[in-house]
Specification:
- With 502 residues, this protein is an all-alpha fold.
- The protein contains 18 helices and no strands.
- Helix 8 runs parallel beside helix 14.
- The longest helix is centred in the middle third of the chain and has 50 residues.
């Protein structure tokens, strides 16, 4: 396979960064305009909530299958289709005559977003060598952090001056530009022995049902609490997940190869991403109410207090790539999870008399830890995946980043309700519940640190063993040149014992 020219690498990096930023920006501006959307369209609160829930369910349930489509048909094609479709759906929302159209088009946005997101990582894996993936992923993470910081400000300004519809037109032009750039990129096809594996449609369907039920349940807990409906959703997720696991073990061409998920790199990396995003988003959810309801700050001043979090994600991501290269995944991720744990604990100790320094300091620690984890764990996951399965790895990463926040917010809401003393007033009950809730979320981050301690020490990927365990072709010429019997024995050993000493 011929190495891509520097210009093609830069163009691919631009596509990845811009595509990830467009989708992240759209998600951060929606919450700002929901009240105005509800008033203008005469929608109920439940209908407005479905503009978020419908999108989240669609994107989470399709990410892994979309990554597999990219592995089979090309990531640049999936990125082009995803971003161009995302642009059209965004424009449609801006012109929607009723809330039903908004919900339907938000679901369509979720489908197109699911096509685009794994492709932004799969393209990087295809054009950058494994040892140089850290900085491109760091730049992508910085772009997501910038979108998170700028989204509420841009959304609020546009909604105030031009109305809520203008917010959805914000992403149209960047998404169109990303789609056109993706069509101009030339991404080399990954090496593969024999025909491409089947798409495993039954496995994709079972996984989609599992994730849809799981996300719907997690989103429903903050709104309705632990009810019969949420219990049924949880049971359905467990049943579908069990059926999916059994199917994948028996399938000739599984959607998610067991050698990838069961490896010493991918499994802990996914656990770290879920734990980190659950702790961070759960803490941010509680802290937002604390700043506005207890400290009586308006939304703008609250955003300023939390700004160090986004700033550290933007500034710290490139630094995290350097630390990852020098210290390796295990030390980098474990230290970052410790920072995240400390940041959540600092926020848990705030009260109505806390000033700007401890508040901003807590958010700064959370941002530094979370940004580093995003870079390091994502780099480990994508780097250790064989090139032919890079899209699936990207889909798994994005799935973890969608499930984790829903889990964290559901946990925070449940614990805040459980720990609030019934005899206290609203402010006293909130403060009484805030400390134990955030301490529990810090414990979740600490569990992520334990998972980070299981990551490989070094940065060299075990591509050959993972490729064999996943059913793909070997990347090492020495393996390719081995006699057929030797290759078969290597394949049997790799399949029975996933890579564990990277």
């Amino acid at each position: 396979m011929t190495a891509p020219a520097p210009a093609q690498r830069n163009l691919t990096l631009a596509c990845s960064v811009l595509g990830a930023m467009v989708i992240a920006l759209d998600g951060t501006v929606l919450t700002v305009v929901q009240p105005a959307l509800q008033r203008d369209l005469g929608a109920s609160f439940a209908e407005v909530q479905w503009t978020s829930t419908g999108y989240l369910i669609a994107v989470a349930s399709l990410l892994v299958f979309a990554g597999r489509l990219g592995d089979r048909y090309g990531h640049r094609r999936l990125l082009a289709v995803g971003t161009l479709g995302f642009a059209l759906a965004s424009a449609g929302i801006g012109l929607a005559p009723g809330v039903g159209w908004v919900i339907g088009l938000r679901v369509a946005q979720g489908v197109f977003g699911a096509l685009a997101q794994p492709a932004t990582l799969g393209m990087l894996r295809a054009v950058f060598p494994p040892e140089r993936l850290g900085m491109p992923i760091a730049l992508r993470t910085s772009a997501i952090g910038l979108a998170a910081a700028a989204g509420p400000l841009l959304g609020g300004a546009l909604a105030t001056w031009l109305g809520w519809r203008s917010v959805f037109f914000l992403s149209v032009v960047p998404a169109l530009v990303t789609g056109v750039l993706a069509l101009a990129v030339r991404v080399p096809a990954p090496p593969r022995e024999g025909p491409a594996p089947a798409l495993d449609l039954p496995g994709a369907g079972l996984l989609a049902v599992t994730l849809a039920c799981l996300v719907h349940t997690l989103v429903g807990v903050p709104e309705h609490g632990l009810t019969a409906a949420t219990a049924v959703g949880a049971l359905a997720a467990v049943a579908a997940g069990t059926a999916f696991a059994r199917h994948e073990r028996r399938a000739a061409g599984p959607l998610v190869p067991p050698g990838l998920v069961g490896s010493a790199a991918a499994g802990p990396a996914l656990a770290v991403l879920v734990a980190a995003s659950a702790a961070m988003f759960g803490a941010l959810f509680v802290a937002t109410y604390f700043l506005q309801d207890v400290m009586s700050l308006d939304p703008l001043r609250s955003a300023v207090r939390a700004l160090p979090l986004a700033v550290m994600m933007v500034v710290g991501a490139p630094l995290a790539a350097v630390v990852l290269r020098r210290q390796g995944p295990r030390r980098t991720v474990t230290a970052a999870m410790v920072l995240l744990t400390l940041g959540v604990l600092v926020i848990s100790r705030l009260d109505e008399g806390s000033g700007a320094v401890p508040t901003c300091g807590g958010f700064l620690l959370v941002g530094a830890g979370f940004g580093t984890v995003m870079v390091a764990a994502t780099a480990v996951l994508v780097r250790h995946a064989p090139p032919a399965w890079a899209g699936v790895a990207g889909g798994l990463q994005q799935t973890a980043m969608n499930v984790g926040p829903a889990l964290g917010i559901a946990l925070a809401t449940t614990l805040m309700t459980a720990f609030a003393p019934p005899a206290a007033g609203p402010e006293g009950a909130f403060l009484a519940a805030m400390g134990p809730t955030l301490t529990a979320l810090a414990a979740v981050a600490a569990l992520g640190a334990l998972a980070g301690a299981r990551l490989p020490r070094g940065t060299a990927p075990c591509t050959d063993r993972l490729a064999l365990a996943a059913g793909g072709g070997p990347a090492d010429p020495a393996v390719s040149a081995a006699p057929p019997a030797s290759r078969r024995s290597r394949r049997r050993r790799a399949a029975s014992r996933p890579a564990d000493r990277c």
